[in-house]
Amino acid sequence: MVKKTVAVALLAAGWLGGSLLGGSLLGSTARAQAGEELGQNRGVIELRFTPTRFAQLAVWLESEDGERFATVRLTEAVARRGIGNRPGASQMNSGFHWPYGRREGVLPVWARRRASTPGASAWNRVIFQNRTTEGLASRTSADHSPDDYYCLSFDKARSSKDALDAVSCATQFSSDKGRFITEQDVSGGYAEPYENDDGVGFMRPLSLESLYPPRLDVRRCANGETGCLDHADVEHFAAHAREVMPEIDAVTMATAVGGVPQEIIFEVPAAWPAGAYRACVEANVEGDYNATWNETSFPTPRTPASTWDSWAMTFGYPYRGQPSVVYCADIELGGDEAMSFSVSEPTGTAGNWDMDNPTYGELRAMDAMTDDPVNAPGSGADRLLLMDGGDRLQVEVRPPRSCDGDQPPGAVDDFVIENHPDELHAHQFARLRFRAADDDHGVHRYDVRFSTDPIDENTFMQATPAKQATVEAEELLVPTEAQAGEMIRVDMGGLVMATHYFVAVRATDSCAGVGPIRVAEVTTTERIFATVTPCFVATAAYGSPLASEIGALRRFRDRYLMTHAVGRALVDAYYTVGPELAGVIARDESLRSLARWAMTPVVAVARMLAPE
Predict the structure, then answer these.
(1) Which end of the chain lies in a sparser environment, N or C, as judged by fewer CB atoms within 10 Å?
(2) What confidence score (pLDDT) does residue 137 get?
(3) Nearest to 21 by CA among 258, 251, 262
């Protein structure tokens, strides 16, 4: 259902309300794309929605006649990490930071509509360098180089679906970055192993083109470097991605934090005529199982025989749960007053993961898709969670004059970044602080990005969006409530050990105005390995640090307590008093028995919330 209301009073209230949600997302997309000044556009659009965890998202604006299309946001895994166009068969299993397998069904509606817009084009397809089949997860040739992001855990427990929010890359992985497929490959019948819905395997031919960009986050190892095994094409991945989609850096967003509201600002180009448009969000989550789409219905492929290696068939998990879901609001541009639109139900689903299906990228009915926010929150239709009032997507269209006279934010001051104080995480986390910027209507968002290359105003958008200080690659949330000049402190993650980084921050406002960047530098430490962190009191109570009860408590600690500041503070406090308390308990069997009794309900809750 779509609702429309004239909302001049709402606009005034929001405009005067100052700082918006700290979890909002904003970027100066239109300025980066077209270099337009405020007042020279068709208006400002604000999209609001709350995604579920691990969602891959595409946000776009399209004209009713299909002649105009603008990508507003695209999650980093697709835009920078190349999951839609990389080596590996499209049906290959998935796992934590899994390096291989083209996810051509990740955001098919966005992919097809973008490529169908007049003047748009596809990308060159990426395949393995010289392996005999796209179904090989392990190395069969000299084709690998160190990878700073992807890893492959050949441990069944660590590569399972249930372990996604509790693992990390234990050691640096060396991956095959691949190469572009050639006309000779295609004419020679180059193919990938593929199973149809009946479980019958065959070799599916591959085309020259892909609807998704290759990786932007890698560069080829230096020419002449000893042991450099990257193909020469790797050097051209990023330039090719930007050539096909020049705005790709400006629209890239980190994976959104599940359950945190997003607020995205977009300036409509002046060249777009007034009229009817659609604002759309496509959301996908690997492994979103239900009765129709699950690991039994779409299992790990095993045929044709000998085209999948044992690693591909044994490790990871079948990712093909429910396909992507799209939410579109019909909106109007060019009016003199602010208008609000909202959507409470999905517009439809992509319906499949198969690029060869004639319906690929077309919206289909929500048949067999889960729509139960109470019993299956975040699944199926609930990929965009219900907000207050029952909406899943809200769009506010502001006329150009709404930002007349707006002044962009000032610069942040006293920006410093330091090694993280926890030496066990200083190889991957850092702590930054700066003084809040000034803005005439309040800062909407602080955009933080990092790179191993120097960052300036021209290269800021090409740098990587900052992540939270967790094992998950989710967006860094910087609070915006601070008054100008107040100190803001936040921890960031997603870094690599023993690496020198440039980190830049700038403020943005609700009219898409951006302040100047400030840059600081930090070098991460070498990784410090520790023995399994003991749960002191529990170990004393159960007699062994490897007891199953202690495993449940560790999983609860890692999956829940260590993912936010309050939880980490509780863990730190426990580590301060735990050893002494454990020493007392360990010496007295009656105290050990009492401790086990007291911890029984705690362990039960931990097992329920953090299963193996």
Answers:
(1) N
(2) 86
(3) 262
Cβ neighbours of residue 69 closer than 8 Å, sequence gap 6 or more: 60, 61, 62, 63, 113, 114, 117, 120
What lies within 8 Å, CB to CB, of 285 at 6+ separation is 52, 53, 54, 55, 56, 321, 322, 378, 379, 383
Amino acid at 30: A
Q: Could you give the strand order of the β-sheet that contains 413-419, starting from the edge strand earlier in sequence? A: 413-419, 430-435, 487-493, 467-468
Q: What is the third-level CATH fold of 413-523?
A: Immunoglobulin-like (2.60.40)
Pairing mode, if any, of strands 56-63 and 123-124? Answer: unpaired
- Cα distances (angstroms) measured from residue 29 to each of 64, 82, 268, 349, 563: 21, 21, 9, 27, 30
Q: Which of 431, 543, 449, 540 shows the shortest CA–CA distance to 502?
A: 449
DSSP class per residue in 446-495 = EEEEEESS---TTTGGGSEEPEESSSS-BBP-----SPTT-EEEEEEE--
Listed by start position, the domains of the chain span 52-260+280-329+348-385, 413-523, 536-609
At 413, the amino acid letter reads: D
For the record, the structure tokens of 88 come out as 């590996």
Q: What is the pLDDT of residue 11?
A: 29
**Taking the CB of residue 171, how many other CB atoms lie within 10 A of it?**
8
Q: Is 408 left (phi over 0), alpha (psi -120 to 50) or beta?
A: beta
pTM: 0.81
SS3 527: coil
Single-letter residue type at 41: N
Rounded CA-CA distance 574/75 in Å is 37
Asked if 287 contacts 94 with a C-beta cutoff of 8 angstroms, the reply is yes
Q: DSSP assignment, residue 415?
A: E
The candidate with the shortest Cα–Cα distance to 261, out of 478, 1, 13, 25, is: 25
Token pair 């120097």: residue: 454
From the number of C-beta atoms within 10 Å of its C-beta (0-12, 13-18, 19+), residue 362 rates as middle
Peptide bond just before 304 cis, omega within 30 deg: yes
At residue 7, the pLDDT reads 34
In whole angstroms, what is the distance from residue 230 CA to residue 227 CA?
Answer: 9
Q: Which residues of 529-543 are buried (b: 16+ CB within 10 A; e: fewer)?
A: eeeeebbbbbbbbbe
Which among 388, 331, 345 is positioned nearest to 7, based on CA atoms? Answer: 331
Supply the pLDDT for residue 139.
78
CA gap 386, 259 in Å, rounded: 10
Q: Cβ(295)–Cβ(289) under 8 Å? A: yes
Residue numbers of the chain with a pLDDT score lower than 70: 1-41, 154-158, 163-168, 170-171, 222-227, 529-548, 550-551, 558-559, 562-565, 568, 572, 575-577, 579, 582-583, 586-587, 589, 612
Q: How far is CA 273 from CA 30, 136, 336, 604, in A?
A: 15, 50, 14, 60
d(CA 254, CA 246): 18
Determine the distance from the C-alpha atom of residue 11 to the mean position of all C-alpha atoms in its chain, rounded to a whole number: 30
